[in-house]
């Protein structure tokens, strides 16, 4: 069992190494992230000038929210998985995986995990530094328990996001090109996953629909576990885990169907 | 007779496709209604290959060579027909089968682009469960033979085409496959690099008794390497037999191309036998093999202002034409 899967650890390791080679793009990423954070910071500070609160968020709550959600965004959504998968299918690179004793699903997951590990380790340091700066501004006082739960929900959020965009990428088997589609979906899901605005500040109807969708578990839920707005119970765990199972089965189904229609594009 | 290691019977592949228009709107429209088109790329192909043979697939662009190899390696499912390789049906994509063959594509890399080739080798060691000892022995041997000691520690994206292909070959051979498919392994390379690769393939086939199918549209490649040749045209096998018989029957001639310093008079050129084409400062001759030397010597020792002379094999199209002429 272990021996059969050791290869996937090497895949993750190689992709971690590749990510290090692209550190220039990481740096660019990092600066754009810092700027957008500063922008959000000032935007909300001026909105809150008169004091008071929006929904159940005071200014410092919102700043904390964006602080954590930006970290999640950059680590979880830092690679365009759909594009990566789509490109591999379109250019025929997937052939190289299919003809070797390797499972494409596991190969891709490990490869993406390598990138995640890289981004998480870099941005954890970066965000801790920002956090030190912010802590003179606002008082964090986060319980240790919340941090532990946060790690669990971070993993859940990552996996949900992974399966959604992985499956989207797999549609390239039929559609040929997913880029435009992919972009529109990213914009829409930005509102639903909580990276643009906390989802509990959305209009009631949207919120009600969103409750039946998996997106909010990607960013909103982990943040809310971190800041204590969501108390973790069995129920808060069961639903996203059920989503993971559903999305996993869907991805598996789509991959199997896709490989059947795949005819080795290119070459 | 010994049982063949590769058996192919009446293999067919028809691609179903549609002409996709660009744009999101068209993509969606295509999804619901689109005109299906069919391409019968491989037609009733049958052959047997014995263990240790090195067989060349020769054919013009679009003949169906790659499609055939893709079916043999299990990436494509045939529309009909049967295949048996080492007792396996490739379409089932069994790991046991995948552990024993390799498919090297000249135009597609299996190496990690941003890492040194060595990292890809190590990954393959895990994928194919190669022991430390075998890995080291084989790697050392290949590195020595192909002279890539430093190359394998350089980022793959920085390698020349020839260097990269050497690394592709190493990556594909570390698990000591019994069957090897090489799809245009020398594409785009200069003459020296081509020869390096060819010599290596030849030696490897001789020493390890590995069964190899190699495709190319260069007659030269196949001539140097293969004793047996299968010619495919428009999806069909039109010749399957020994190399020397092919040469005797259908490639009896070689091509001499001459370019002159300046334009010459046609009567000066026309006095030579076997003239095929002449225009101003260029002439080509279609010469029987055994007379090539003589004709070349005559041309060079004449008073024509020869700038350059080149002797080459006839191209695939000419050979195919000869085969069809013969069949009529
Ligand atoms: N996925 C596909 N969909 C539709 N037609 C295809 C597809 N792949 C290949 N074909 C067609 O099938 C025919 C055979 O293609 P194939 O790639 O096997 O040729 P080949 O002999 O390898 O040619 P080349 O020497 O150019 O590599 C071609 O006419 C090609 O256009
Ligand atoms: Mg081809």
Let me know the number of strands of chain B: 13
What structural class do the secondary elements of chain A suggest? mainly alpha
* Biggest sheet statistics of chain B: 6 strands, mixed
Q: Beta fraction of the residues of chain A?
A: under 5%
Strand content of chain B: 25-35%
Count of domain modules of chain A: 1
Distance between the termini of chain A: 35 Å
H-E string of chain B: EHEEHEHEHHHEHEHEEHEHEEHEH
Quaternary form: heterodimer
Distance between the termini of chain B: 33 Å
* Spatial strand order of the main sheet of chain B: 5-6-7-3-8-9
Short recap of the structure:
The complex is a heterodimer of chains A (267) and B (328). Chain A is mainly alpha-helical and 267 residues long.
Describe the structure.
The complex is a heterodimer of chains A (267) and B (328). Chain A is built from 12 helices and no strands. Chain A has 267 residues and is an all-alpha fold. Chain A has one domain (2-261). In chain B, a hairpin with a 2-residue loop joins strand 11 (275-279) and strand 12 (282-288). The two termini of chain B are 33 Å apart. The mean pLDDT of chain B is 89. Chains A and B meet through helix 1 and helix 5 of A and helix 1 and helix 4 of B. The complex binds adenosine-5'-triphosphate and magnesium ion. Magnesium ion binds next to helix 2 of chain B.
